Amino acid sequence: MSTSFFGKYIVPEAAALRNTDSYRTIPPIDDGAAREILYGGTRLLNLASNNYLGLSAHPDLIEASAKALSRHGCSSGASRLVTGNFALAETLEAELATFKYQEAALVTGSGYAANLAVFSALADRHTVVFSDRLNHASILDGIALSGARLVRYRHLDMEHLEQLLGRERQVAKKIIVTDTVFSMDGDVAPLARLVELGKAHGALTVVDEAHATGILGRGRGLAAALGLSEDVDVHVGTLSKALGSQGGYVAGRLETIELLRNRGRSFVFSTALPPAVLGASLAALRHLKANPGEGARLMRMAKAIRDHLSGLGFDTMGSTTQIIPVACGRNRVALHAQALLRAEGLLVAAVRPPTVPQGTARLRLSLRADLTEDDLRRVRLGFSRLRVSFFP
């Protein structure tokens, strides 16, 4: 071990971080996807998970996962391109493609890996990628991996995007990428205008539907909700949020998926998802197709909670979805408010830089379809008490 490097760089950097209000620790949580969880031995209502439809413990998913585990064992044993393939994976991809109104789909180890695969396969140093300033870190990391030049446009600002596209009109290879539902703000992309600009400037359009899958467009995402499934070139999503399982996916034209299979580094060089996960994901997708209204019900619930918070004077930062931020500004304010809500039996995330821009620390509520009327009353009461005690 290099003691000089460790002592000179790692020890002081860790100590400096430990003494800031940006320091992170793994919370003392058991069963973190459940509606109610144990936090340091105290039972709390879970408003911090991305298990939006409450499917992670659904009996159909558990049964399908157990059957796959019993039949195939614990591991895939290799990448899909070697021996790590299962008929379950091919069935899942075929059904995902149909569900997304696309020709083909590819399943990856995570949503993060899906974005890395997209950009490592489709972009290179001759490509300019136009990315919303608040896009997920996995998009930015995928662009960096590809060697493409990153051009960031102001959040949701299509006039700014149009200006930037005009400045780069001489570039032949252009990609526009956006989250459809933004994970820290809960707002949605102006997708129709973005698609128009992509067509006008000959740019490939890529959308990440991670937080819209299962919720919008009868579960198919924002592109489907707006009738734009065929107009968007590449659809990225996740199996590990509303679908209650694990992994990511990319759907699009057949040739696009062929390139990802061959050049998507996070796909080519990763061990494939295990069979138990594939079984759960397939069961979740089939549940979603059979119950297309669950996302809409969650959206109605979210509107009622947003209206309550706004009525109390909280700033929900333009959210229109199941993700509801509550602006706090400073890191310490967010952490203090989180602790007060925990005392009320509610677990919410306190999101701080670098996850969000400096000075925009916030509470982040992730609502879920399995919340009961009593749960929602607890949420309203907890924030009412927070307002009185902390935000007079």
UniProtKB/TrEMBL annotation:
It comes from Solidesulfovibrio carbinoliphilus subsp. oakridgensis. This is 8-amino-7-ketopelargonate synthase. InterPro entries: Aminotrans_II_pyridoxalP_BS, Aminotransferase_I/II_large, AON_synthase_class-II, AONS_Archaea/Proteobacteria, PyrdxlP-dep_Trfase, PyrdxlP-dep_Trfase_major, PyrdxlP-dep_Trfase_small. Catalyzes the decarboxylative condensation of pimeloyl-[acyl-carrier protein] and L-alanine to produce 8-amino-7-oxononanoate (AON), [acyl-carrier protein], and carbon dioxide. One of its GO terms (biological process) is biotin biosynthetic process. It comes from the Bacteria. Keywords: Acyltransferase, Biotin biosynthesis, Pyridoxal phosphate, Transferase. SUPFAM superfamilies: PLP-dependent transferases. Belongs to the class-II pyridoxal-phosphate-dependent aminotransferase family. BioF subfamily. Residues 44-379 form the Aminotransferase class I/classII large domain. Pathway: Cofactor biosynthesis; biotin biosynthesis. Its EC number is 2.3.1.47. GO terms for molecular function: 8-amino-7-oxononanoate synthase activity; pyridoxal phosphate binding. Its cofactor is pyridoxal 5'-phosphate. The modification N6-(pyridoxal phosphate)lysine is found at K241. It catalyses: 6-carboxyhexanoyl-[ACP] + L-alanine + H(+) = (8S)-8-amino-7-oxononanoate + holo-[ACP] + CO2. Homodimer.
